[in-house]
Design brief:
Blueprint: E1 22-29, E2 32-39, E3 51-52, E4 60-61, E5 68-69, H1 74-86, H2 97-122
Antiparallel strand pairs: 1-2, 2-3, 4-5
Amino acid sequence: MPNESVADIKCPSCAGDAVVKGSLVASDEDERFNGRFFPENLKFTAIRRSVVVLGDQGFVACTNCGCLWNYVEPAKLQALLKQKRKGESPFAPGNSHRAKWALLVLLAFLVFGATTGLVALFG
């Protein structure tokens, strides 16, 4: 399964082919499960570019084939993937990722300039 393309993967529960690969960040702190799924190929894998893993039981694994699964809300995952197609930035709603990067570079120059000015003033 590691070398399978996403087109060859079927849902283990419903055998559907509308699947997306991604990564998972999960923790089990204070006897409480907390997990987030980050779909592949999203520009910024920040918490807003993920969906919460449902259930507090963690994951279920098959000892015969090694399949590991849990669930996310399909509507939230579809909305997240639709955002990607539109090129919207969750950090600056209504702006593209290019505009977000331009703002980030501008902010970096402002911080650098302020730091340099303070060092010159007090240093």
